[in-house]
Write a structure and sequence with these properties.
five-stranded parallel beta sheet; single chain; 39% helix; four-stranded antiparallel beta sheet; alpha/beta
Length: 227
C-alpha cells in the first residue's frame, strides 16, 4: 500500500518513513501543508498520516480539503496536543483515527493495518487465493504446507494483487500502490518482481496462480492463459 506521510520534523519523518518501508509500505513524504496538497492532487494514496501542526496550513485544513476533493483514503492524525477539543476537531475535519505523540511504532503499525482493512466492508486480515494463504497481520505467506519468504517489496506486490484477486491489475495501478514517487515508469521493474513472485509461488507441480493478460496487466487467480 502507498502512504503519504506529512510531518514537518524532517529527521522524524525520514526515520518514520524508513520504519514503514521496512513494513512493506511505499511512502511519500511532505514536510509542509502546501507540499502535501500538491502530492494529494497528483497521486493516489491508500492512506495519509497527517501531523496537525504544519507550516503553510494545518493538518485540519488539509484533511478538510481532502474530503472536499472527494479523497476517501483513511487519515491518521498525529499530534502532540493531548486535548480532547483538538481530537474532536481532527475527527470532525474528516480524520479516521488520532494518535498522540510520542507513540510506540508498534501501535502506529497496528492502527495503520486496522485502517487499511476498512472499506465498504471490514476485510479479513487473512487473504486466501486457492491454496495460498497471506496473513497481513504478520506478513506471513504459505502455499499449502509450504512457508514462503519474501522481500518487503515482493510481499507488498503479492498483497496488492491478492486484495484484487480475480481482477486484471494494470501496471500504472501497481506502480501507484506498491511503489512511491521515485518509480521510473519506463523501467521493467514490475515485470522483474512478477517473475520473482512466480518463481516462489508457482513452483513445479503446482497450479499457476499469477497470470498475465497481454496488453492489460496481471491477475492472481481467475483464469489459466498466460502470454
Amino acid at each position: 500500500m502507498r502512504l503519504l506521510l506529512v510531518e514537518d520534523e524532517q529527521d522524524a519523518a525520514r526515520m518514520l518513513a524508513k520504519g514503514l518501508r521496512e513494513q512493506t509500505y511505499a511512502v511519500d513524504i511532505a514536510f509542509d501543508g502546501d507540499a502535501a496538497m500538491e502530492k494529494l492532487s497528483v497521486n493516489t494514496y491508500d492512506m495519509v498520516i497527517l501531523d496537525v501542526m504544519l507550516p503553510s496550513r494545518s493538518g485540519f485544513e488539509i484533511c478538510r480539503e481532502m474530503r472536499r476533493m472527494g479523497a476517501r483514503a483513511p487519515v491518521l492524525m498525529l499530534t502532540a496536543q493531548d486535548q480532547i477539543l483538538s481530537r474532536i476537531e481532527g475527527l470532525d475535519s474528516g480524520a479516521d483515527d488520532y494518535l498522540i505523540k510520542p507513540f510506540d511504532f508498534g501501535e502506529l503499525s497496528a492502527r495503520i493495518r486496522a485502517l487499511l482493512r476498512r472499506g465498504p466492508a471490514l476485510q479479513d486480515p487473512v487473504i486466501r487465493v486457492a491454496d495460498l494463504t497471506i496473513d497481513t497481520r504478520n506478513r506471513s505467506v504459505r502455499r499449502g504446507d509450504r512457508s514462503i519468504d519474501f522481500t518487503a517489496k515482493e510481499y507488498a506486490l503479492l498483497e496488492y494483487l491478492s486484495k484484487r484477486q480475480g481482477e486484471v491489475v494494470t501496471r500504472p495501478e501497481i506502480s501507484e500502490h506498491v511503489w512511491d514517487e521515485s518509480y521510473d515508469p519506463f523501467s521493467n521493474l514490475i515485470e522483474v518482481y512478477i517473475q520473482r513472485l512466480r518463481r516462489k509461488i508457482d513452483t513445479s507441480g503446482e497450479s499457476r496462480l499469477i497470470h498475465t493478460r497481454r496488453g492489460e496487466g496481471y491477475r492472481i487467480g481467475g483464469f489459466d492463459e498466460d502470454d
